[in-house]
Amino acid sequence: MINKEQVTEIVYDAICAYLDVERSELNDTSQLEDEWQLDSTEMVCVAVDMEKELGFKLRGLKFSEIETIADVISEVLRIADVLEAQERAAEVV
Q1: Cβ(17)–Cβ(50) under 8 Å?
Q2: pLDDT of the residue at 93
Q3: Averaged confidence pLDDT in the chain
Q4: Backbone angles phi, psi at 31, to 5 degrees
Q5: Is 20 left (phi over 0), alpha (psi -120 to 50) or beta?
Q6: Which part of the chain is the Carrier domain (predicted)?
Q7: pTM score, whole prediction
């Protein structure tokens, strides 16, 4: 199971790399589109980079609902929880 700290690091690393900025320039409330002009199409590129580090696909990532870095972290954690629940259910069967 991946934890919040791991997800946070992966999300920040991917966004910083894509934007070519230092970690200190961003925070959880950074507005990705309004402040950094990162639109949903570009978020797909960031998501692909995150998937490589996470080791799972971010199917169901709700790009239209993502405004801040905290939103990205929450969405990744939500997807990780769903995948974990599916794995547990498969083990029971």
Answers
A1: no
A2: 64
A3: 93
A4: -85, 110
A5: left
A6: 5-80
A7: 0.91
